[in-house]
Amino acid sequence: MKAPWSAAPNLLRIKPWETAGPKPDGTARWLVVAAPDGKTAWVTEQGANTVSTLDISDGGLAPTGKITVGTHPNQAVLDKAGRRLFVANGDSDQVSVIDTASSTVASTISLAP
To answer: From the CA atom positions of the chain, what is the Rg in Å?
Structure first.
């Protein structure tokens, strides 16, 4: 079974007022990006400074790991090949470049003046 959003664009914004709100630890899910093949999704989590990885191959949402990035990750975009996820870290003036195959930060781009 394909993920429910696999036929739609691979970007889904989570509106805080449409969810249960912040998690008990104070973090908030911000954005979901789904891989073009419909097998994996990444969720930016403000407050935790992480991006969670999810297995969505069977239509569910099974957590598979967390990637530590900069402060307050919010926006994210996947490259056309699905190999790199670019995550904007709003309060550290950086973009974390995630290698999607290894689920690691491959590089960090500083945007500080």
So the answer is: 13
Instruction: Map tokens 């990637």 to a residue.
Output: 67
Sheet containing 28-34: give its strands across. 11-13, 28-34, 40-46, 50-55, 62-68
Q: In terms of pTM, does the model score above 0.90?
A: no
69 vs 105: CA distance, rounded Å: 7
Summary mean pLDDT of the chain: 81
Tokens 């090949």, residue located: 81
Delimit the domains of the chain by residue range. 11-110
Cβ atoms of residues 105 and 67 within 8 Å:
yes
Rounded Cα gap, residues 57 and 60, in angstroms: 7
Tell me which architecture the domain covering 11-110 has in CATH. Answer: Beta Barrel (2.40)
Helix residue spans in the chain (DSSP H) = none
